[in-house]
Structures are given as C-alpha cells and as structure tokens.
Amino acid sequence: MSASKKTIYISEKHIGGHLLKPIWNFFNKRKLLNNSGHYEAICKTCNRVFSPGKPSQMEKHIISECSNVSETIKEAVIYIVESRDKSSGTKSLNEQLSLDEYLESTTIPDKHIESINRALIKAFVCCGLP
C-alpha cells in the first residue's frame, strides 16, 4: 500500500452522514482516507471497482454491464430506478407532449396582429428609427 492512498473497509452499520442509496446493497463500500467522504464501490458479483462510487454509474453497471449478476437483482435495480423516476415527476419521452399537441393553434388572430403592429410602430417612433 502506498503512503498517499490508504484504505479501510467500512462495516455494514451506518456511521453518520447521509443515507446511502439502495444500490449500495449490491456493492461493498471502501472509504478513501483522503477525508473526501466518498466511498469506493466494489461490485459484489464481479468485483469491478468504482472510484468514487456514483449511484447512477453503479445502477447502469448492474442493469446493463455486469454479466455475473442474476436476473432477480437486475429486476430489483430496474424497479428502484423506475420508482425513483416516477416519484421525482420526470416524464418519459412517450408521455411528453409534442409542441404541436401543446399549442392550441399556430395561427394568430387579427386582433393580436394589430396589437403587435401598434407596439412595434410605437417602439420605432420612440427610438427614432426610420
């Protein structure tokens, strides 16, 4: 071990700080002793190391990259991700309205055109533009 990077393994008991995301159940954590507060993550099935362990990368690894993980675990992680996305209010692309569906009409009524033209004329006159 080099003098600049010493590591220790953390027990499963939570020791202060913010709560870890559920994805950490599928990874071992190892804290870097550079006082950053971040953990290295080690996949429990293939031993791939993520330094630092970012939950989004860890989820992607379990869902699509790790060949040793069981289908049950993949399904559990997919469920975690989908549940979080639904609760955060994000819409999937197929739920999002297109611009044509969102707008009531693409034509401008004559009344609005007259009002816009008047406002433009006033702006040109006030600024002294020809």
State the gist of this model:
This protein is α+β, with helices and mostly antiparallel strands and 130 residues long. It is 38% helix and 12% strand.
Number of helices: 4
Secondary-structure element order, N to C: EEEEHHHH
Report the average pLDDT across residues: 79
Instruction: Decide which structural class fits the backbone.
Output: alpha+beta
Question: What key phrases describe this protein's structure?
Answer:
130 residues, alpha+beta, four-stranded antiparallel β-sheet, elongated
Structure description:
- It is a single chain.
- The protein has a domain at 7-89.
- The radius of gyration is 27 Å and the shape is elongated.
- The protein has a four-stranded antiparallel sheet, covered by helices on one side.
- It starts with 6 loop residues before the first strand and ends with a helix.
- The chain has helices at residues 55-65, 71-87, 99-102, 110-127; strands at 7-9, 27-32, 39-43, 49-50.
- With 130 residues, the chain is an alpha+beta fold.
- Helices cover 38% and strands 12% of the residues.
Topology:
Elements: E1 7-9, E2 27-32, E3 39-43, E4 49-50, H1 55-65, H2 71-87, H3 99-102, H4 110-127
Antiparallel strand pairs: 1-2, 2-3, 3-4
Helix pairs in contact: 1-2
